[in-house]
Amino acid sequence: QVQLVESGGGLVQAGGSLRLSCAAPGRSFSDYALAWFRQAPGKEREFLAAISWSGSNTSYADSVKGRFTISRDNAKNTVYLQMNSLKPEDTAVYYCNREPPDPDYWGQGTQVTVSS
């Protein structure tokens, strides 16, 4: 089992920005497409954004398109999610995983709370 480690969450006011990071300690995932997801209380886990192994292709959910940007640094085995213009409805636990998701890769996530 490989657990990814997400970080960078926190409390931010509406309209603010955060950058999340996700790494796989001691393991390379440069060959995999990766994605970010989130889960709000009482809701199903939601796909947000994906990036190809090379970083040349990305895709986004309509709910975050134009506000969030996914990127990766394969030399650092890290994938990022830059989140701008945050809204209270973005409050959730954020996770990264392979794309499509692998059950063995889910980590603990990082909490993002956006206050109004």
Describe the structure.
This protein has 116 residues and is mainly beta. 0% of the residues lie in helices and 46% in strands. The chain has no helices and ten strands. The strands form two sheets. Strands 2-10-9-4-5-6 form a six-stranded mixed sheet, with no helix packed on it. It has a four-stranded antiparallel sheet with strand order 1-3-8-7, with no helix packed on it. The protein is globular.
What does this entry show, briefly?
With 116 residues, this protein is mostly beta strands. The protein has strands spanning 5-7, 10-13, 18-23, 34-39, 46-51, 58-60, 68-73, 78-83, 92-98, 110-115. The strands form 2 sheets. It has a 6-stranded mixed sheet, with no helix packed on it. A 4-stranded antiparallel sheet has the order 1-3-8-7, with no helix packed on it.
Offer a few descriptive terms:
single chain, about 120 residues, mainly beta, six-stranded mixed sheet, four-stranded antiparallel sheet, globular
Distance linking N and C termini = 38 Å
- Tally of alpha and pi helices: 0
Low-confidence stretches: none
**Overall mean confidence score, pLDDT:** 95
Fraction in helix: under 10%
By helix and strand content, what is the structural category? mainly beta
**Helix/strand order:** EEEEEEEEEE
Task: Specify the biggest β-sheet.
Answer: 6 strands, mixed
Q: Strand tally, please?
A: 10
Beta-sheet strand percentage? over 45%
- Main sheet: which strands, in order across? 2-10-9-4-5-6
